[in-house]
Amino acid sequence: MPLIDLANPTRFLTLSGRILPWLSAATLIAFAFGIAQVIGAPDDYQQGATAKIMYIHVPAAWLSMFVWGTMSIAALGTLVWRHPLADVAAKAAAPIGAALTLQCLITGSLWGRPMWGTYWVWDGRLTSVLVLFLMYLGVLALWRTIEEPARAARAVAVLTLVGALNLPIIKFSVDWWSTLHQPSSVLRLGAPAMHSSILVPLLVMGLAFFLLFFTLHLAAMRNEIMRRRVRTLMLMQADAATGH
Amino acid sequence: MDLGPYAAFIIGAYAVAILIVAALIAWVLIDQRRQRQLLSDLEARGIKRRSERSPERHP
């Protein structure tokens, strides 16, 4: 099947309906395997058991940026090709990205208090992630403000692409500025600076969270397509009632 | 499993993560149910998209 065929909403509903059960099962298995790995993972020699927060904090941090990246690609689809499925993908991703960014901020704060002695510092990494969270809220608010979906999608797409400038700032903030936050340990040039007994559970939990995102995103896209169909039918009903 | 002196922070962080993931799953499932209900209500009233209507017979 050519890739362009998937861009048809009806075909997308059919195909995603077939994929979703398998994706859900894969997500559950990955989480079961990941949690077992986390329970068996050794404590950090400096941080003790507190390092276990990393297994839910770091995947949420990766996804907070990945979801905005996904929304940015969808924004290009909206602005360049004006494809409704790109609008749907962007809209469905935003609440998931916002929730996972919130998870990143709260778990990071709960990790910071025992390790740094404070829940929060206004340094480059923490502040740029907070800005990302506020931008997610801005996108969600913009979707709700403009009633006509295609117009809302274009406004959101512009905001999303502007917001994408924050992604490299988040990534390199720990290298550019002095910060309490540690530099990258996994996604960096050279080998990860982590022992495999800690790295493997982290990667498995990362995979589980990515699968969770793909599952939720696919399901939320299906809901958004149905919402647009409901809207179209209600407009048709209103037109019929007024005799237009 | 001994979580050490900062167990409350570790348990709190996992509780927040579970709550957020559960809220996301609930949001998707509740929304799905609502949209399906609305669509079936509209279709039951005979309101269908043009592509789903049966073709009209022409003499």
What does this structure look like?
Chain A is mostly helical. Chain A has one domain. Chain A contains seven helices and no strands. The longest helix of chain A has 47 residues. In chain B, 64% of the residues lie in helices and 0% in strands. Chains A and B meet through helix 2, helix 3 and helix 7 of A and helix 1 of B.
Topology:
The complex is a heterodimer of chains A (244) and B (59).
Chain A: H1 9-40, H2 54-81, H3 84-116, H4 124-145, H5 149-163, H6 166-176, H7 196-242
Helix pairs in contact in A: 1-7, 2-3, 2-5, 2-7, 3-4, 3-5, 3-7, 4-5, 4-6
Chain B: H1 7-44
SSE order of chain B in H/E notation? H
Secondary-structure element pattern of chain A, one letter each: HHHHHHH
Query: Count of helices of chain B?
Result: 1
The share of residues in helices of chain A is: over 70%
Alpha carbon gap, first and last residue of chain A: 40 Å
CA radius of gyration of chain A is 20 Å
Tell me about the biggest sheet of chain A?
A: none
Shape of chain B: rod-shaped
- Please, how many helices of chain A? 7
Biggest interface and residues each: A-B, 39 and 34 residues
Beta-strand portion of chain A reads under 5%
Regions with little confidence, pLDDT below 50 for 5+ residues of chain B: none
Distance between the termini of chain B: 79 Å
Going by helix content, strand content and strand pairing, the class of chain B is: mainly alpha
Stretches with pLDDT under 50, minimum 5 residues of chain A = none
Rough outline of chain A: globular
Write down the oligomeric state.
Answer: heterodimer
Q: How many distinct folded domains of chain A? A: 1
Helical residue percent band of chain B: 55-70%
